[in-house]
Design a protein that fits this description.
Largest interface: A-B, 67 and 67 residues
Shape of chain A: globular
Number of domains of chain A: 1
Structural class of chain A: mainly alpha
Strand content of chain A: 5-15%
CATH class of chain A: Mainly Alpha
Low-confidence stretches of chain A: 156-161
Number of helices of chain A: 8
Oligomer: homodimer
Mean pLDDT of chain A: 92
Chain lengths: 161, 161
Amino acid sequence: MRRSVGKQADPDLGMLTGRVLFNLQKELFETLARRGHPGLRPRHGAVMVYLDAEGSRATELSQQSGQHKQVISTLVDELTALGYVRREPDPQDRRAKLVVPTALGLDMMSTSDAIVAGIERRHAEELGEDVYAGFKRAFQRIAELQVAWRERIPGQATGEA
Amino acid sequence: MRRSVGKQADPDLGMLTGRVLFNLQKELFETLARRGHPGLRPRHGAVMVYLDAEGSRATELSQQSGQHKQVISTLVDELTALGYVRREPDPQDRRAKLVVPTALGLDMMSTSDAIVAGIERRHAEELGEDVYAGFKRAFQRIAELQVAWRERIPGQATGEA
């Protein structure tokens, strides 16, 4: 059997995550565009997903998203230009800045959360609530195992060994 | 509760797919680098995953990966420069070209498939074979449902509506 045919019939974890993420982002950003947020791109997700209404530090956004601080800084610049966030002094640390959502940013955050929740509700209806809940539990466990694996084996994590 | 804290405790499907894909790619490409393939990057996955030993048409790679033909063409250029593939005339269609893996490309394909299979074996051992098999079935069903959803609702698929 051709390799590509075998893979279409029995996709590996990389293919499945890649496809599902690609299609989920496509639906999310197309729907956001129709609901008043046309300038956003999937790369902005690293900030959009974790941003707090009270404001977030860039270092927090970096840790939560797994993106380098420099990447987060560029994304915050773009989102500032698009009118979604602004940098404000952190009241708890005068030397630090907070990334704070504007009114447009708050609308985007709640709209985006509602779109993703709607997509997940659709999957749960199609698969059955129990099956979907089991899928989510297993997926979360896999995400945790990946982190534990990287922390357990320093050589694997750094590319040495 | 802060939005970010709630999301860490109960991650949505977009966060989970993003994290698991990011960590899987990190482990895959770091391991490939240690096994003689240091020049590859995650973006090359769109071609690497679907390439056949017998050669693949660029249009096939585009359909299978969901990437634009222009993107595939750029990736094939890069993989050609890295020594992984070459473009050859398609024996079945004189006007078409086939993307054919070199010996280095064939080694990369089997090494990459073995690394991903090893990662999945680890997950299956940690979760239990049955739980992991159920997870994969549900995941594949979700990937199919996304495609069916986009085909069913043309407005959603094209961003009109």
